[in-house]
Amino acid sequence: MAKLGNYIEKKHIPLSRYESNKHLEAYGVSNTKGIIKTDHVKSSDLSKYLVIRPGYFAYNPYRVNVGSIGLTPQNIEGLVSPAYVVFKAKEELLIPEILLDLLKSQMGLFLINKYATGTVRKALRFDDLCNIDINFPEYPKQVEIFEKIQKCNELQREIRTSLNYSEILKEAILKEAFSNQ
For residue 72, which of 93, 51, 46, 98 has the smallest C-alpha distance? Predict the structure, then answer.
């Protein structure tokens, strides 16, 4: 067994230390939608907010146990609350999308809850996340796995689309059947 910490690195970059003159929007993390734009900014001074860039993970240590973790998409650069944990997968060691799928799976949520600490309200700090025992396959095997996961995701999208069309068709059939009497 290896520690997850071998595959990830913390990216704790406050806006005050970020060398860019870009205006960055505030984001949050949803357990269903991942990284989302938010209006819930707790302070007018964003200097302590953390920078997220494409490929960075972000999560609230108190909400990750319900799957509230996100991977920053390629088109987003922004900020998250300083209460969040921000990290990234080490290149050529771990495909970020595989880690995201794992952490949001039942097995991942089990591991998160197992390694979270606290008595009244459990939290998964970055050090706790790093201590998770896990074995990832070698990078070339991860590429194969990732391609299979992408095919599954595409199939799920096609199934959802077909189900939506079948509901629309069913409604149209019922409407026609009962409006022509």
Answer: 51
Report yes or no: 101 and 94 within 8 Å, Cβ to Cβ: no
- DSSP symbols for 21-33: ----EEEEEETTT
Burial degree of 20 (CB within 10 A; 0-12, 13-18, 19+): exposed
- Residue 86: φ, ψ to 5°: -125, 130
Residue pair 139/93 in contact (Cβ under 8 Å)? The answer is yes
Answering whether pTM is above 0.90, one says no
Tokens standing for 38? 């938010």
- Cβ–Cβ contacts within 10 Å for residue 102, how many? 17
Summarize pLDDT for 95-144 with one digit per residue, the tens: 999 999 999 999 999 999 999 998 888 999 999 999 999 989 999 999 99
